[in-house]
Amino acid sequence: xxxxxxxxxxxxxxxxxxxxxxxxxxxxxxxxxxxxxxxxxxxxxxxxxxxxxxxxxxxxxxxxxxxxxxxxxxxxxxxxxxxxxxxxxxxxxxxxxxxxxxxxxxxxxxxxxxxxxxxxxxxxxxxxxxxxxxxxxxxxxxxxxxxxxxxxxxxxxxxxxxxxxxxxxxxxxxxxxxxxxxxxxxxxxxxxxxxxxxxxxxxxxx
Length: 206
Ligand code: ADP
Ligand code: TYD
Description:
The chain is of the alpha/beta class. The chain has eight helices and five strands. Helices cover 56% and strands 13% of the residues. The site of adenosine-5'-diphosphate has 14 residues, from helix 1 and helix 8. Thymidine-5'-diphosphate binds next to helix 4.
C-alpha cells in the first residue's frame, strides 16, 4: 500500500526514530524492515563493509541486497496492502555510493540509477534526517572502531548528496532537522506517515 523510507547519515537518529514509530504507529500494524537486510546477502554486505573491498563490488552487493529485499519483502508486503517502513533504502546508495564511486566511474549517480531502473520500487515518502556531521559523529558512541563510511569528510559529501536528492524530488522528501528534540521528531514523522497512509487509502477507494 504505502512505502515509507528513513534516510540520513550514520548517527542521524534513524534507529531511534524507527523504534519510537513501532509504538506510535502500532495500530496501523506496519511492517518494519531495513537495508542492509538480515538475509545471507545482507551478511555479505556487512562483511564487504568491514573488509573494505573494491567499491564497485561493494556497491553491487548493496544492490543485490536491495533486489532480495524488494522481491522477497517489500513487493509482497505492498501487495498485501501493508504499510512498509524501511530504515535505509535505495537513496542510501544514491548518497553513499555516489560518493564512494567518485573517481572510479565517470558518473556514479547515473550508473546507480540505471542499475535500479525497471525493478526497484520508488518510496511514497522519504524522511531525510539532517544534522551537522560533527554532531552525528559525537553521537556515535560505539566504543570501538568506526566503519569506513564514518569519517567526517565522507559523511559531509554523503549528506550533501542526500540534500541534492531531496532538492530533485521535493514532493517525495521531507527533510527533518535531526538536532531537534527526539519526541518532537517522532511525533511529526508519525503524523506525516498517518496522513500519507490515509491519503493513499482514500485514493484507492475512488
Ligand atoms: P542512526 O540509526 O541514524 O545511526 P541512532 O538512532 O543510532 O542513529 O542515533 C545515534 C545516537 O544519537 C544514539 O545514541 C541516540 O540515542 C542519539 N539520538 C538519536 N536521536 C537524537 C536526537 N533527536 N537528539 C539527541 N540525540 C539523539
Ligand atoms: P547501517 O547498518 O544502516 O548503519 P547505521 O545504523 O550506522 O546507519 O548501514 C551500514 C553502513 O552502510 C552505513 O555506514 C551506511 C552504509 N550503506 C551504504 O553505503 N549504502 C547502502 O546502500 C546502504 C543500505 C548502507
